[in-house]
Amino acid sequence: MPSQANKTNQDREGEALKSICQILNLVSRYYTVIICFDEIDTLNNCDEAGNKTEEIIVNLVKRLYDSIQQSAASKGICFLTVMFLDTWQEIVKAFGKSQSLIDRLVGPKSQILIDRLVGPGKKPIQLEYLDGDSIIELVQCWHQMAIINPETLEKLVQLQAKYPHSIDLWQLKSYLQPAPTSNEEVVKYLEMVEEKIRVRSHVVELVRKYLASTNSSTVGIEQLYGAYVTSGAPQSLTQEELSEIMIELSSPLTGYLGREGTSFYFLRKLYEPQMNTDERR
What we know:
By secondary structure, the protein is mainly α. It has eleven helices and five strands; from the N terminus they run αβαβαααααααβααββ. The strands form two sheets. It has a three-stranded antiparallel beta sheet with strand order 3-5-4. The longest helix is centred in the last third of the chain and has 33 residues. The radius of gyration is 24 Å and the shape is elongated.
């Protein structure tokens, strides 16, 4: 888990975009991914640079389109931007009638995904008011897909960005279940990841306190395990499990502990994730 302290906002945004693409690529191997940006026609809503909400969203879709590299096994990723016709016309003007942008948003590749979703040769899905039949169709479709709440996806990306390598994509795959339990399963996975981080944070802090209280430069596994058992740790561990965690924390990819042979010393803190589990539900 490399330090994020010396990274610029642009670096963090780049890593977050990379994490999103990895997650979407993984999910698309098992399900067709549909991400909808609805109600983007927000009046008088601009960022500090004067960019409108709809311009920011369209630019995000373009960046994702350019960045995602789907495998041959992918079932497709579809971005839907729901807006009024005059909003679309304003976006085209804002981007200087860029043909590359238009191709990305409504290009020929979009018909391939439409054929996959609604059948070859059929027309795109039209926006209509819900009636009894369409509600039944919607629920039937929903039960066939893995649906993750936007808040859960955001927490997933935030966790990966703040604690690099904390999200194991292949492990996450086993938690992607058809709706309506898919979001709950991903929440369980996030809770498990957070618990692992808390345990590691506790171990790092225990090493720091042990060395300070004993005025030592290093500590061995046996000595620290005795302290761990009585430290009120968030999770019980065997000595072997503690040893594996300390080796992990002293690897070049993490760098929270240093290592001299079979002994360890403190390098830097690992802060616990401050995330409200109830918010993901």
